[in-house]
Amino acid sequence: MIRYLPLFSLFFLSCSTSNTTEVDMVQNLEVQTTTETQSKPMATTSIYDGNYNIKTLAGDDFDFNTLKGKKLLIVNTASECGYTPQYKQLQELYAELGGEGFLVIGFPANNFGQQEPGSNEEIATFCEKNYGVSFPMMEKISVKGEDMHPIYKWLTTKEMNGVQDAPVKWNFQKYLLDEEGHLIEVLGSGTSPLDEKVVSFAKS
C-alpha cells in the first residue's frame, strides 16, 4: 500500500548540493512502499499501449516501443538540484547492469524549483562532462501540470497504468517497469539508484 506524507513544507524547499534541508524535507514527500515488489498487483495496461514517440537530447526521434522486452528505470532529472549527484549512481547502475535486459531512461524536467533551466544541448554537455552519462536521455519535457508529457500521464495516473496514482513529487523520482511495460514500483527522490531493491529488480 502506498502512503503519501503531508506536502505543507514543499514551498520552503531550496535545492543546492550543500543544503541538507532539501534532502530531509523531500524525503518526507517520497512515495513509500510497504510491500515487496513481488506481492504488488500487476498493471492491467502497458506503457507500450500508448505508442509513445519522443526525441532524444540530440534531437533524434525515439520510438518508446523499441524498449519492450527490457526492464526500465525511468527518472526525471535536473542539473541544479541537491539530488543531481544521483546521475553518478544512475550511470554506475547502467554501466554494471544495463544492456539487453535493463535500461535507465532519463527525462530532464524543469518543474521543480526551476532546477533544469538549460537547453537540451546544455543538458547533454553537463551530463557528459560531469557524470559521463551514457544511458539514454530524452529531450527536456514537463512531468506535471497541463503540459505534462503523455508518458508521464501514464506513469502518474492509475486510470492509465492500472496500478496507482503516483504524481511526481520532486526531481529524481523513479519508476520501475517490467519487460512488458507494466508499472511495478515508484521510488522517491531520496532512494538511491543503487538501493538494494533497485539492483535486485534490475538483476531479476
- Helix-and-strand structural type: alpha+beta
Order of helices and strands: HEEEHEHHHEEH
How many helices does DSSP assign?
6
Morphology call? globular
Query: Count of DSSP E strands?
Result: 6
CATH topology: the name is: Glutaredoxin
Mean pLDDT, all residues: 86
CATH architecture type: 3-Layer(aba) Sandwich
The CATH H-level superfamily is: Glutaredoxin
The unreliable regions are: 1-20, 30-39
Major sheet size, sense and barrel closure: 4 strands, mixed
As laid out across the biggest beta sheet, the strand order is 4-3-5-6
Computed over alpha carbons, the radius of gyration is: 16 Å
Number of domains: 1
Tell me the layout of helices and strands.
Blueprint: H1 20-27, E1 53-55, E2 61-63, E3 71-77, H2 86-97, E4 102-108, H3 120-131, H4 150-156, H5 158-161, E5 174-177, E6 183-187, H6 196-203
